Amino acid sequence: MSERDRDLLHVLAEHRYATTRQLARLHRTRYTSEASALRQTSRALQKLGGLGLSTHLDRRIGGLRGGSATLIWTLTATGHRLVHHGRTEPLARYRLR
Q1: Which member of 53, 70, 76, 82 lies 3.0 to 4.6 Å from 61 by CB, making a disulfide possible if both were Cys?
Q2: pLDDT for the residue numbered 94
Q3: What is the dihedral of CA 12, 74, 31, 6, to 10 degrees?
Q4: Contact indicator for 37, 31 with CB cutoff of 8 Å
Q5: Which residues in the chain belong to E strands, given as ranges?
Q6: Stretch (H or E) spanning 38
Q7: pTM for the full predicted model
């Protein structure tokens, strides 16, 4: 797992929910453009989803044609355990600022 993947998991653990676009903006400095950041972040999130570490909510912001940038992501129980090194106590509630 790459450093970027671990960073995405930690951000999701801290904030509980985030859109693809929000996560891409947080990691924008790693890429040459905003479009590249969005594409690469989307790919990383799909990979983490395939590993069972993250998932997105069923409903997209903006309806069915909202695109992948409008997916809302969160950690799965497995992703939470990985980030928190096996601890299973409930997460504290966080708010995005």
Answers
A1: 70
A2: 46
A3: 50
A4: yes
A5: 18-19, 54-56, 72-75
A6: helix 34-50
A7: 0.75
Q: Which residue is associated with the tokens 């096996």?
A: 86
Torsional sign, CA 31, 9, 66, 61: negative
What is the model's pLDDT at position 78? 92
Closest of 27, 29, 31 to residue 8, by C-alpha: 27
| The two three-digit tokens of residue 60, written as one number | 């997209």
What does the pLDDT read at residue 74? 95
- Alpha-carbon distance of 75 to 91, in angstroms, equals 11
pLDDT of residue 64: 55
Backbone torsions φ then ψ of 64, nearest 5 degrees: -65, -25
